[in-house]
Each structure stands twice: as C-alpha cells, then as structure tokens.
Amino acid sequence: MMLFWMALSALGGMSVTGPLGIAVAVWLLAGRTWRLSLSWCLLFGIGMLLVVATKVAWYGWGIGIPEWKFAGLSGHAMRACAVYPVVFYLMFLKARPTVRHAAMGAGTLLAVLVSVSRLPVQAHSLSEVVLGGAVGLAVAAAFVMVARSERPVIVGRVLVALCVPLVLVMPFTKQVPAEQWVRQVAMHLSGKEPAKRTWKLAPEHKQVHKAALAI
Questions:
Q1: Assign residue 32 a region: left if phi > 0, alpha if psi is -120 to 50, beta otherwise?
Q2: Dist. CA 68–CA 199, nearest whole Å
Q3: I need a labelling partner for 144 at 20 to 30 A (CA). Which of 9, 31, 67, 99 fits?
Q4: What is the spatial distance between Cα 125 and Cα 89, in angstroms, rounded to a whole number?
Q5: Where are the transmembrane segments (predicted)?
Q6: Is 80 helix (H, G, I), strand (E, B) or coil?
Q7: What confidence tens digit (pLDDT) does each residue in 22-74 have?
Q8: Which of 38, 29, 43 has the alpha carbon at shortest distance from 154?
C-alpha cells in the first residue's frame, strides 16, 4: 500500500507538475491566447510563491502554527490541485459541457489523491496538505473562470501529446531538490540554522524514502 501512496505522491513532485505547468502555458501560447497564458503563469506563480514564502518563513525564522503542526504549505498539494484540474479541463475544452465537467472532476479527484498521499508518506501534516491543496484549487478555479471567456484554437489532443509523456516518464527521473533549495535560501536570508519541527508526523517505526519528502 505504501508503494501506491508513494507513486501518487511522485505525481505531485516538481519534476512532474513543473513541466506540466509549462506545457499548459506553451499550449495556450500556441493557441494565440496570450492573455490566458499570462493569466495561468501569474496564477500558478502566485501559488508557488505562497508555498516558498511559508517554507522560508518556517525554515528561516520558525514562523508557523505549531498547534496545527503547520510549517509551510505542501508544494505537492498546491501544484497538483492547480495543475491537474486545469490540464483535464483544457484537454476536453471542445467537448460537451457534461464531458468537460466530468473531466475536470476527474482531474480534481486525482489532485486530491496526490495531496492525501503526502500524509501516509509522512511528508506533511494534515493542515499543510489541506491549506496547500486549497491554494492550488483556488488557482485552478480562478484560471477556469478566466478561460471561459477565451477560445483557444488548438484542440485538446495537442495538450494530451504534450502531457502524457511527462506523466509517464517524469516520476521515474531524478527528483528536483526544491526543498533543499528553499532551506538554503531561508538560511541565507536569516543567517540561522533551519528551524526543525517539534512534532511528529507519523509513528517513528515507519520508514519512508527520502525522495517523498521533497517540496
């Protein structure tokens, strides 16, 4: 069962969701929807900035909510909840409304499962996952609201061609050490050793692969 959760967790990694986010922007640019592409980049960038800011605040100055076991937004949850609903929505943009809504629902379900996977792999607390996922879903919802007024000219199959290889291949590539980068930035800015959690995420006897602990 742990392998299942770790496989799901890998789908939220920077090496997967980062290229997927770029694929969305490229697809929108290719469809000459410049405003929509810019909107996506801004919204996704804001979500990423919030993740980094909360983690830097914790590592650098210990700013968090110990009562909630909160030490920063889950990057996996934020990115998954931002990217997957949008990818599924765009892939079925030309389909009937019922099909398009079902596709977006499937993308949202996948995103939620990826977010939940961060709990059994002991990477985040419940509050970090819920708040990270909420930010990601807000990004996706805001983008869809903007997208309703646009008419991309490229059919969804193009986005499928861009995304499928990423989803199949990237989880098996070397993980991007994003968490380490954020920690180093926090240490540089604060001039202190990084703060450490004073709470446990799961029973000590469980062992989890270190790759699952990435941002």
A1: left
A2: 10
A3: 9
A4: 29
A5: 6-29, 41-61, 73-92, 99-117, 129-147, 154-173
A6: helix
A7: 988 988 887 778 889 999 999 999 999 999 999 999 999 999 999 999 999 99
A8: 29
